[in-house]
Amino acid sequence: MNKKNQGQVALIVLLLSAVIMTLGLSVSRKTVTETKLTTDEELLKKAFSAAESGIEYYLGTGDKKYNSDFDNTKAEITTENIGSTEILGSITEETREKDNAIFWLVGHNTNGSIDYNTSYSGDLNNTYVCVENDYGGEVKIDGFGRNGASDYQVKRWYFDGSGFAGASDSCGSGFKRVVNLSKLSGLLPLLVVVKPITGNTAIILNGTSNFPIQGEVIRSTGYAGEVSVKSVNQKLSIKKTYQVPEFLLEPITSFGSVLSN
Q1: What does residue 186 show for φ and ψ, rounded to 5 degrees?
Q2: What is the pTM of this model?
């Protein structure tokens, strides 16, 4: 083989080698990328699971730091109180037809039990249940109070749209007054439950002093992977409000209850 042919063969070999190397690198990069995507997806699942576990751990222990040695994950919890303002309820969240909007007029202990020493101190004559201006449906309201140590009473209201006050009257922009809570005067006010009977509406309670805390928003950030540098994280939040105990609901239907229309 002459030198000219040898040169051509060498050139062809070099070109083939370059093509093979390029294809090999492309396949290698694709394999690495797919492996990383699979790994990241798995870490995101672990981080979300850690965020859920962090909330459960906080609810069970009160501890805002969660660590799992099993799969090298962790979660950090932050909380924010709901309530402790002069207006309760959200102007962006509607209460659905026949659902209950619950407003506590009494505080709670750390274990969730009622703290009768932290009841709402505002003027009940100027504390109003309010609905959106464009709502014209019916509203049922139950107000719970305590007279003495064991005498629980229920005060009831029922209104259709024709009984509502004018727009923005005592309730602020976008809302109209349904009724004040004067019927609870003389009692230790405990709870107000408002139910829209026809249609959905946002509902607020507008008072003259801060209402007790209604619960808390719990936010959890879960981490997975290299936890020390917090490489992959997922966020989760829930709203936890105080529930109505059965002994307060019983007076509505129990024989011999002290009720007021």
Answers
A1: 90, -10
A2: 0.73
